[in-house]
Predict the 3D structure of the following.
Amino acid sequence: MEERKRIFSGMQPSGMITLGNYLGALKNWTNLQDEYDCLYCIVDMHAITVRQDPVKLRKQCKDLLTQYLAVGIHPEKNIIYYQSHVSQHAELSWILNCYTYMGELNRMTQFKDKAAKHSDNINAGLYTYPVLMAADILLYQTDLVPVGEDQRQHLEITRDIAGRFNALYGDTFKIPEAYIGKVGARVMALQDPSKKMSKSDENQNNTIALMDDPAVIMNKVKRAVTDSENEVRYGEDKPGISNLLNIYCACTGKTIAEAEKEFSATGYGAFKTAVGEAVVAELEPVQKKIKELEQNKDYLNEVIRNGAERAGNLAAKTLTKVQKKIGFPPAIR
Ligand code: TRP
């Protein structure tokens, strides 16, 4: 069998994913599954670096799993699992902590941001977050990691840690690269198109959640910020309209040029209606599927059991190799 490249990605179970996550990431993941061996990890261990409510965390893990499946990420073609179910992540993370310098971690911009935001809880896990992420990636001999701009620095440190370990002990880890493929649409906040649509945004009118009702979606799109012209045209000087055009095209598969032409004689009101309808049409089948899956507990349990087993088998291989190289005595079985 020909060797397929391996892709690893993780998402935090931190609330309802947005249209931005969907068009920017998830929708593209479904295009990767026939060409690559992909692991999609629900990183509950990363999530506890900020305080979580246990009941909510458990629900958000299950919701994210359901959302992965509903958008069409196939549980047999890919490995979908909860990070906490595969204990090798924690074990390798500890080892890699001993090969990571505080000076490196001190430079992480996400740590600085999060420490400022959660100044009452600057815990050691928040600090070593990138090391756990390195363990996630390196456990699976990952070739490619699809990462957004905000995670670039974490991928860099992963490469540094892997290179350092390999230099000391010989080839152990594959050095991962950023996946630069067909990137998804970059969806901006509806009320402030200078920043990305984010699930942690406090202003609900900035985001469209995957599970928003059609009426809510139409309303949020209608209230989206535009400009004082009346021309549906893509351009840096028109961030609001450009964002809506991006959303429209990502949902319909049309090009920007086609959309501009389609709306060349249309006012913003009618344009927004068309955008809202396109989003509703795109999300409705996903919402329906989510509701179906939520009724099917046995199926979800089987997906998660199977995912943990397959991930665990791969992870165990790497961890055993690492333990041997650094001189841990072999386990007697
Ligand atoms: N830190 C990533 C985020 O917040 C999530 C993540 C954890 C991840 N482990 C990963 C992403 C490994 C890619 C690869 O978005």
Q: What stands out?
A: The radius of gyration is 21 Å. The first helix runs from residue 19 to 32. The chain has a mean pLDDT of 95.
